[in-house]
Amino acid sequence: MIDLNKTWIIVKPEIIKLIKSYHLLILLGAGIIIVTQFYGWDKESLTIFNIPLEGYHGSRETVYKNLLHEWFSWAWIYITFYVLLRLLLPLGDSFSVSQLLWLRLTPCSPWEIAAARAIWVIAYGVWLGFLGLIWVLVTSLYHHIYPANVLLDVLGLVSYIIFVGGMIAVLDFDPECDYFSKRVIVFFALFLPSLLDLLKIGIGGLFHSQYIRFFPYTHPFAMLTSENLYHFGVAGILGLFFLSFHILSKLKYSSVEISELLPNESTRS
Known about the structure:
Elements: H1 4-19, H2 22-38, E1 39-41, E2 46-48, E3 51-52, H3 60-93, H4 97-104, H5 110-143, H6 148-171, H7 179-203, H8 209-212, H9 228-248, H10 258-261, H11 263-268
């Protein structure tokens, strides 16, 4: 069985750093202030500092939904690079020989290490989704709009993090995979959810719309539509599947074998 105490020892420092990150709290506070204090409605159009804005047309509720969607999407782009530096690159590095040898000192079984990776990824998704939920609820309540479609953006962000993190985990880099190769794969995984949307557009005519709506993708500035529930939801489920597969694939190992990590050294000895 997985010893959750050992797993928690590995992942605890990363989760503490995530929760204490002042970058995210500043982003949340600034986002709330900007959308609630800078923007208004003059009964005909959206205003910023009481100056009417062009380009935002429709009913008051539609205009505010588009505004919140746009601001959330810009925040999502910032969060993407934050997640790249704080989660995805370190996650890829966790498969390196030096990291695995250090983890062997805990001592943890390979599946406990894999479980720690999965918890690490999910923690990022849940925490950032929680902060996004606070932002959407506060701003939508302030402007008195129904936030259903904007809440799908929060689901999209959570799904994005879990999908990309799960993709990196399921690749299970071989210890011999060099530094540059890992970086290339991590950056490819970073943009994969957006590329899948382009792929969906390309193959959309080959499938019935009833099935193509389950095609997984998730990215900022996606069209505000209720069908995102399926696209984002399936992407998140796939990410969870990747993380689960990563854990289950380690069940056949009882410990980290140093001879497997350093085959050349064992051959010499």
